[in-house]
Amino acid sequence: MVSKRILVTGGAGFLGSHLCERLLRSGCHVLCMDSFLTGSHANVASFLAHRNFALITHDIAQPLPAGMEVDEIYNLACPASPPHYQADPLHTVKTSVYGAIHLLELAQRCGARILQASTSEVYGDPEVSPQTEAYWGHVNPLGPRACYDEGKRCAETLFFDFHRRHGVAIKVARIFNTYGPRMQPDDGRVVSNFIVQALRGDSLTVYGDGSQTRSFCYVDDLIEGLLALMASPLEVTGPINLGNPTELSMCELADRVLTLTGACTAVDFRPLPQDDPRQRRPDITRAKHVLGWEPTVPLSVGLEKTVDYFRQLLSATSTTSVDGVVQVMREEGAS
Ligand code: NAD
Ligand code: UDP
């Protein structure tokens, strides 16, 4: 049987590296394309020796290398943490919009299926809860988050226009907050921030009064959802919400992290960033019915695995670089 050739953009990032690993395990040929803006060489170093793995350093906002032939494309390339995507907002928009066009043209030429890693941010600061795919969202198009939110919304538009005009086989996943091992310690998102701060004995930085909510999905669950969506019948285009509906406030998350780590550090309340969504919870009815998918890892279990990961990483990085340690942990099989 000939194995599929799969392009994973953003494959050296948090989600992308887990996806590459999972695809390699199932016998696929994986071509990882990444600009290393927020991704890390350590995340993919142990795949390099695999005969089915190839790495291209490339920015998807630029025209793609000529002559690529693939069967499936997962487009995960885009900084996902607010401080990272706001650092160069114009490039964030170009990544989502030019990147989508380049990859959709490749899919059209190759007759490949293409999956877009969209986001719950397309719902903005939602006025309804939980959020269903039918909700059109409440996004400030002028604010500091807009480069990400509107870029991702435009990418969805491009996916559906390529589908209608050119018959491209598209899949759009709206991913809700996902966490787990292999997030960067300086990523800036809340789960990694709280865990790293607790393990270092620093105060936990809670933005605003901490009453805003999120619903966190463990990375292994999310990856299975992406695979199920890619494998779904052609007529399933999405958008489909992928996330864990268990909702909690940022103060509750801080308490959970303090309990799990055994840290007795203080909580440092900081100003709430502009346009920070007040609440977020996915309605995953569609994913359950159409894909037969739902998350299986409870927050307590996923957080414990993530704490273990960062504990190992930080104790080793007191003497060496983060990249070196992540690579060694990957080679030793720590997920
Ligand atoms: P990440 O920052 O760890 O990974 C993003 C990867 O994309 C990095 O390896 C980065 O170097 C690469 N990249 C960025 N811009 C690029 C460009 N122009 N060309 C090539 N590579 C580029 O983030 P993540 O959490 O792994 O997110 C992966 C994808 O999933 C993103 O598209 C993100 O928007 C989406 N998503 C993630 C979450 C989440 O909670 N993790 C939620 C919603 C959506
Ligand atoms: N947050 C926080 N402390 C931090 C980082 C984030 O309280 O150190 C808050 C942030 O304001 C938001 C929530 O945690 O309300 C989730 O933030 P994250 O950046 O992880 O994801 P997003 O806002 O994109 O959902």
TrEMBL record:
Cofactor(s) of this protein: NAD(+)
NAD-dependent epimerase/dehydratase domain location: 6-242
Coiled-coil region list: none
A GO term for molecular function: UDP-glucuronate decarboxylase activity
Keywords: Decarboxylase, Glycoprotein, Golgi apparatus, Lyase, Membrane, NAD, Signal-anchor, Transmembrane, Transmembrane helix
Primary localisation category: Golgi
Alphabetized InterPro entries for the sequence: Epimerase_deHydtase, NAD(P)-bd_dom_sf, UXS-like
Membrane protein topology class: Single-pass type II membrane protein
GO biological process: D-xylose metabolic process; UDP-D-xylose biosynthetic process
Cellular compartments annotated: Golgi apparatus membrane; Golgi apparatus, Golgi stack membrane
Record-level GO cellular component terms: cytoplasm
UniProt protein name: UDP-glucuronate decarboxylase
Organism from which the protein derives: Acidovorax delafieldii (Pseudomonas delafieldii)
